[in-house]
Fold Extradiol ring-cleavage dioxygenase class III protein subunit B.
Amino acid sequence: MSLNFAGISPHPPIIIPKIGSLDDLQKVGNTILAMKKLSSTFKNAEIDTLIVISPHMLVYPDKFSICGMKKLFGTFAQFDHPDIVFDYESDIDLAIEIDKKAKSEGIKTLLYNNDGEFFELDHGLMVPLYYLKQQQETAFKVLPIAYSNLDRAAHFSFGQIIRDVAKTYPGRVGILASGDLSHQLLQNNDGQEFDRKIVEDIKKSNVKNILYYEDEFIEAAGECGYRSILILLGVLDGIKAKMEILSYEGPFGVGYLVANYTLKES
């Protein structure tokens, strides 16, 4: 099996030491410790290519977007730190195989290429990468993928397609679902209930429960991680995995979940 790493990560720039104040960093201390633990797991997995599902790429209503550009580049200039730089190569071969497999299964995808010099990384990609790369001694490729506005079944099926391609792909592949949970923790109880429920369902691997949340329940939570998680769950379908919640907290009214799946040969 070529799938060797799977996890869930939040993406608040405030957990980056140069961006968050000392007080902020103390408030998200559990998240930072969990990200460092996830980074250690990532290092041990010796990944060649990391697929990252980001909510902050261009989201299409009817298709999944797969980065088809070779060079990836980004900085935290938007957060007053252009000195924090991310420079990666994408895995074009893997992108092409996922795109081809999805289309053969009737799922619409776009192999995105804007004909520019590079693909610009967003903070949904860069925040997790900031931590995952810290302990790396060798370079790895990154394949950004965006979810869509298609239904939940399509997201789960798209994840299964990624899984099938990864299983036969030469090299060690990892997948990370980037996303924050409810953005409404301070405004209403719906956000708190959403986070409580999804964290518990993820912990217990209640995949069917997660797939069938009511639309109103999800919308009231104001989240940006649900569809990333659906794709991840599709990737993990049929794979023996031990899941671990590394941390959950929401000190600023947004839910931050860090989780790891230890994958086992099936």
